[in-house]
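Before a computer can learn anything about folding, someone has to put a protein's shape into writing. The outcome of that step, for a single protein, is printed below:
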Amino acid sequence: MIDRLLLAALLALASFGSSTAMAAGKVQLEPSYVNISDRASLQRGAALFMNYCAGCHSLGFQRYSRTARDLGLSEEQVMTYLNFAGTAFGGHMLSAMDPDDGAAWFGGKAPPDLTLTARAKAGGPDWTYTFLKSFYVDETRPAGWNNTVLAGSSMPNVLWNLQGIQRPIFEGEGIDARVAAFQLAPAGSQTEAEFEQTIRDITAFLTYAAEPAALKREALGVWVILFLTVFTMLAWLLKQEYWRDVH
């Protein structure tokens, strides 16, 4: 019985690993190097998300008040620079776009909520980071854009003015054709390094939004390790003292 359960668990694990590899293996994901402990990066990412992404996408499981507390922002700052939908300070970070309008404008499906994207996608933050920098011009698509990470995406490149317009260089022919590289023409308002920092900040903010408790958990982790270290030393000294008389 135990052998069968062990075999079933191993098969399930192998299946999960295989499906994850397939999901993330279509393209080579680039490391995002996000750091959710970098409060300045999170603040920049919040501003960028609300200015470029929140017109279509909601963060339905995140509240403005929680964001303010975690990112060290005042209520006035949040309501002035982040809240463009007129939501109450304690309300959820919802897009002002009507879902029916979103479905009509984006091929029958409204833009998804992005609260859990950084955790739900295989590759985690690396998926989000690579996705944001992998848009290219595709005149066959309704929006005029495509993406190497999520082929056929109906999302336009909302950051094109910062990044510039990427034009694909294909390798192979027919159904085997794939995007091998990009040609940037024209360039955007940011340098390559500046744009990479921009999407790293957005990715960091989405990573935080997917698990706000991670900030507190990581901060407490240092103290937990310190406590266990001190407790281990005290336990060892107590053992030495106890066994001294026994010997």
Notes: Confidence is low (pLDDT under 50) at residues 1-25. The two ends are 46 Å apart (CA to CA). Residues 27-211 form a domain with the Cytochrome Bc1 Complex; Chain D, domain 2 fold (CATH 1.10.760.10). The chain has two domains: 27-211, 216-247.
